[in-house]
Amino acid sequence: MDSSKSQIKRAKQLDALAAVLPMAAADRYAEVLTDADVATLKHLAETGIGANTLRALASDLAYLEAWCRAATGRALPWPADPELVLKFIAHHLWDPEQKAIDPGHGMPDAVIAELWDRRILKVRGPHAPKTVSRRLANWSTLHQWKGVEGRFDDAGVKKALRLAMKASGRAPQRKSRKPVTRDILECLLASCSGSKAIDLRDRAILLIAFAAGGRRRSEVATLKHSQISVADPIKLRPTDPTSPMVPCVRIALGRTKTTTAGQGAFVFAAGRAAVALYEWMQAANVTSGPIFREVRKDGSIGANPLTPQSVNLILKKRCRMAGLDPAEFSAHGLRSGFMTQAGRDGIPLVDAMRQSAHKSVQQAAGYYDEQEHAQSRSVQIFI
Predict the structure, then answer these.
(1) Which strands sit side by side in the sheet containing 245-252, from one edge to the other?
(2) Where would I find the Core-binding (CB) domain in this sequence (predicted)?
(3) What is the phi/psi pair of residue 169, to 5°?
(4) Higher per-residue pLDDT: 203 or 359
(5) What is the dihedral of CA 121, 61, 220, 50, to 10 degrees?
């Protein structure tokens, strides 16, 4: 079979994974990936691996294949030797000032040009350390799935990566420049206070995403009716014996970034969030399947779930309607906003983590906005 027919075959096989792979780039992926790569991705999909994880694996595998061919003139080998891993680190974690002096430093210009022209490379400078770490981790994972032993624990590789990370002067970028705290959320909710289906849906999305612990956009987009159950009402003011009761729902998290479907993780959403969810489900007649669905221009409601990107676009649209700069916020700001607001309200970190489902204290604390840190009592201990 010639290369053209093989590429068409791979494209068709990738189409079968359209629900989990970024298929806007299907043809480009078919050019880069090998038949064995596509077979690996199909196997991963059949094992029930999370959609986001599979998307990241597919994207990183396509990048690694393209980079290796551009940098070495050959296909990505399995297993990869330590020298190739070291070359990857050198090509992606480098000093721009040194490259200005020495053009041979970092990724060669010819490699940059080839990857850029093929729309594989998205930045011309050094990569973010987190991106490099993720790609190396996924490269190692793919070795395991292919049944070959990688050399990513090689002492030379680990030392080179550690030194490159330390030398990198690139500050980590937040997924959302600003957190969506309570005051910002109220502005967004005011923009969807109407009774139209799209207002009901967007209000429920914003409130559930925030109140249920700052849920990730993928978790909101894939939320299903079977994950929702009615919980006992709770007090609006827990310490007040005369406090009125408010409705509460229990949300089974299923598979998330830090949990698997079998772990039984769950969170709660109460008060306005629970009411907004009920109103949307009733208006959309959601009795099974996905909770959040497309609302067409004529106001009718589709059956298919939203995509994670749709959740992000909804938040940005509501930012524009509320007079806020959409560039300052993303859907992930609901997660950092929940943690930041918890800090403002004096909620113990362990309680906030129980609701957000964070596993690491360091990771959870990292979501606090820098300004909140600057205003904290720990900074003011001796002024």
Answers:
(1) 228-235, 245-252, 266-270
(2) 20-147
(3) -95, 10
(4) 203
(5) -170
CA angle 58, 118, 85 (to 5 degrees): 55
Mean pLDDT throughout 91-103? Answer: 85
Upper half-sphere CA count for residue 270 (Cβ side, 13 Å): 16
DSSP per-residue string spanning 305-345: EPPHHHHHHHHHHHHHHTT--GGG--TTHHHHHHHHHHHHT
Q: Is the pLDDT of residue 17 over 90?
A: no
Give 41-89 pLDDT, tens digit per residue: 777 766 666 666 777 888 888 899 999 999 999 999 999 988 999 899 8
More confident site: 263 or 35: 35
For the record, the structure tokens of 221 come out as 């987009």
- Distance, CA of 242 to CA of 224 (rounded, Å): 35
The H or E element that residue 301 is part of is strand 301-305
Q: Indicate if the pLDDT at residue 181 is higher than 90.
A: yes
Peptide bond into 247 cis (omega under 30): no
Task: Delineate the domains of the chain, giving CATH numbers in brackets.
Answer: 3-167 (no CATH), 182-373 (1.10.443.10)
Tokens of 56: 């990241």
Q: Are 249 and 277 in contact (CB under 8 A)?
A: yes
Amino acid at 67: W
Distance CA 283, CA 204 (A): 12
Higher pLDDT, 255 or 156: 156
- CB atoms closer than 10 angstroms to residue 284: 20
- What are the structure tokens assigned to 271, written together? 């008060």
